[in-house]
Amino acid sequence: MKLLAFLAFISLAAAAWAQAPAKPAAEPMKEAAPKPMAEAPKQAATGPKIPNPRRWTEDARHCLQLPTPTEVIKCAEEFL
């Protein structure tokens, strides 16, 4: 039994030792940095602002009570 354990250990150690060490990746050629363009002035968003558009933390199981699959999907999309 000790011989079997020893042979298993040696075979695993040999396989790990035979693997080539990882070579560091060559640095890519550095390109000239692009010139920053003048930023356009930010315009105010039009339309009503939604206070909290994402509702990930809320429970959407009430949508499952709707009668048709399309109504369920439309209701559940609010929670995505």
Structure description:
This protein has helices at residues 2-18, 69-76. The chain has 80 residues and is an all-alpha fold.
Q: Let me know the largest β-sheet.
A: none
Question: What is the SS-derived class?
Answer: mainly alpha
The sequence of SSEs as H and E is HH
Net shape: flat
Instruction: Note the beta-strand portion.
Output: under 5%
Low-confidence region ranges: none
Rounded mean pLDDT is 75
Oligomeric organization of the protein chains: single chain
Rg from alpha-carbon coordinates: 30 Å
The total count of helices amounts to: 2
Kindly state the number of beta strands: 0
Helix content: 25-40%
Q: Quote the distance from N terminus to C terminus.
A: 58 Å
Give the secondary structure arrangement, pairings included:
Elements lengths: L1 H17 L50 H8 L4
Task: Output the keywords.
80 residues; flat
What's a quick, concise take on this entry?
By secondary structure, this protein is an all-alpha fold.
